[in-house]
């Protein structure tokens, strides 16, 4: 079935709200914890909240990390949310160095505690922030944000660390926090991630999830 979304259940993340949002967008949701189930998936969503190293440990405990890499190599759509998005990158320095899935080149780093002028920034970054085009991009055509108007694009964030993609073309959308540009959406080929919570981001988040459900 083309509208089936396989959601990885590895004990980290609020699966209930993600499942309900996907179902609202017309998806049939399969929660899976067996890596073998990814061999038969056509769309996979990787959720996550909490610490990077803990989540990677949970994924690797039964080989789900390698199953995700194999699935991504097949060319089918993979979407990571919040911590799930961060794990798509090479590594994180949260509580020490930890290797990620390596599907998008880059690192995960702490949000700066102050801006360039020395004024304090509140960390974690919690609340609604608008999406903006990164320096290397002037449109969202062909991405999960295609129908979003930047003038009405506020989405809900909760995070202390941010993804820093190595290549500018993998940076799809940013949000501005003080004078820090935070990567809000990243993508490489069939792999995409959102730092914010689409399931908690109203019409903008649901539009993004709907495009994922409809993706081929």
Automatic annotation (TrEMBL):
Pathway: Amino-acid biosynthesis; L-histidine biosynthesis; L-histidine from 5-phospho-alpha-D-ribose 1-diphosphate: step 5/9. SUPFAM superfamilies: Class I glutamine amidotransferase-like. Its main location: cytoplasm. It is found in: Cytoplasm. It holds the Pfam family GATase. Residues 7-212 form the Glutamine amidotransferase domain. GO terms for cellular component: cytoplasm. The active site is at 82 (nucleophile), 197, 199. It comes from the Bacteria. It catalyses: L-glutamine + H2O = L-glutamate + NH4(+); 5-[(5-phospho-1-deoxy-D-ribulos-1-ylimino)methylamino]-1-(5-phospho-beta-D-ribosyl)imidazole-4-carboxamide + L-glutamine = D-erythro-1-(imidazol-4-yl)glycerol 3-phosphate + 5-amino-1-(5-phospho-beta-D-ribosyl)imidazole-4-carboxamide + L-glutamate + H(+). InterPro entries: Class_I_gatase-like, GATASE, Imidazole-glycPsynth_HisH. One of its GO terms (biological process) is L-histidine biosynthetic process. Heterodimer of HisH and HisF. IGPS catalyzes the conversion of PRFAR and glutamine to IGP, AICAR and glutamate. The HisH subunit catalyzes the hydrolysis of glutamine to glutamate and ammonia as part of the synthesis of IGP and AICAR. The resulting ammonia molecule is channeled to the active site of HisF. This is Imidazole glycerol phosphate synthase subunit HisH. It comes from Pseudomonas brassicae.
């Amino acid at each position: 079935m083309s509208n089936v979304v396989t959601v990885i259940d590895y004990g980290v993340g609020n699966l209930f709200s993600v499942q309900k949002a996907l179902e609202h967008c017309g998806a049939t949701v399969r929660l899976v914890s067996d890596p073998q189930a990814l061999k038969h998936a056509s769309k996979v969503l990787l959720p996550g909240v909490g610490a990077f190293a803990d989540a990677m440990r949970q994924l690797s405990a039964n080989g789900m990390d390698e199953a995700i890499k194999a699935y991504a190599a097949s060319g089918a759509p993979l979407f990571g949310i919040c911590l799930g998005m961060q794990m798509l990158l090479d590594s994180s320095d949260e509580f020490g160095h930890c290797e990620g899935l390596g599907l998008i080149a880059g690192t995960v780093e702490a949000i700066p505690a102050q801006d360039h002028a020395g004024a304090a920034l509140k960390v974690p970054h919690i609340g609604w922030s608008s999406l903006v085009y990164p320096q290397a991009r002037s449109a969202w055509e062909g991405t999960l944000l295609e129908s979003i108007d930047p003038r009405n694009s506020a989405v809900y964030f909760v995070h202390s660390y941010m993804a820093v993609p190595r290549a500018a073309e993998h940076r799809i959308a940013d949000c501005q926090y003080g004078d820090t540009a935070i990567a809000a959406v990243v993508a490489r080929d069939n792999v995409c991630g959102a730092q914010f919570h689409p399931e908690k981001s109203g019409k903008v988040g649901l539009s993004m999830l709907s495009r994922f459900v409809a993706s081929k």
